Amino acid sequence: MVLQVSPDGLKLATGSKDTTVIIWDVDPETLTCSHRKTLDGHSYGVAFLAWSPDGTHLLACGPEDCPELWLWNIETEELRVKLSHSPDDSLTSCSWHVDGTRFVTGGIRGQFYQCDLAGNVLDSWEGVRVNCLWCRSDGKSVLAADTHHRIRTYNFEDLSDANILLEDQPVVTFCVDDSDRLALLNVATQGVHLWDLEDKVLVRKFQGVTQGHFTIHSCFGGVNQDFIASGSEDHKVYVWHIKRERPIATLTGHSRTVN
């Protein structure tokens, strides 16, 4: 299962291998969730979700063998477009540009596209095998973790690209904080690493988490994003302060890998 809270915090989207996405309304007063709409037809299952910056649209990607991406209009509760550029594609990751009118998507088979809300491919990079994507706050550059253990930046205005960082093992997933400077990486067999994107240096390696080659996600949290949380293959969730390598909390209760 995968889940994402909307930017305004009032909706929750959950996706599953059962081919559905469920939209839930979140009531901050009663601290309850109520079913709003089930969006079905994701024939490959749902492995990744991304809300648009204004919360009006939702992107849904499938697993590695999925060549399709679904763009839902949450206000009308209708499918706006199903993107399938080529049957050879693997569209497993996506990210929204800050203006909410464009998004990027790609996967491990070497396809990497920038698209508009109608599903038109505006630009593309060939031969880029993508594990994870992140649009930066400048509205024109995109970070991509590739199968060569790197995170590279791609600029769609001048069609330039450059290395940002290199790890010893594959970067499975990553995210960037609100300052657009710190990146949190889940690295295969190594765990959770914190990088400074401006200085291009490894800041900290967080201890405790079990990370093999499963897709594990981590995130920044707290009022000032001073905390970090990550799933783990040992069925636990780990929480750290951003300035401490050892976890300040270990949450138990799951019986299988926490993605």
UniProtKB/TrEMBL annotation:
Key words, A-Z: Cytoplasm, Repeat, WD repeat
InterPro entries noted in UniProt: WD40/YVTN_repeat-like_dom_sf (IPR015943), WD40_repeat_CS (IPR019775), WD40_repeat_dom_sf (IPR036322), WD40_rpt (IPR001680), WD_repeat-ST_regulator (IPR051350)
Main location (coarse class): cytoplasm
An individual GO BP term: proteasome-mediated ubiquitin-dependent protein catabolic process
Keyword Cytoplasm: yes
Origin: domain of life: Eukaryota
Transmembrane segments: none
Locations listed in the record: Cytoplasm
Pfam annotation, one family: WD40
Any GO CC annotation of this UniProt entry: cytoplasm
WD-type repeats, residues: 1-34, 39-70, 224-250
PROSITE patterns: WD_REPEATS_1, WD_REPEATS_2, WD_REPEATS_REGION
SMART domains reported in the protein's UniProt record: WD40
Protein name per the record: Wd repeat-containing protein 26 isoform x2
Gene source species: Triatoma infestans
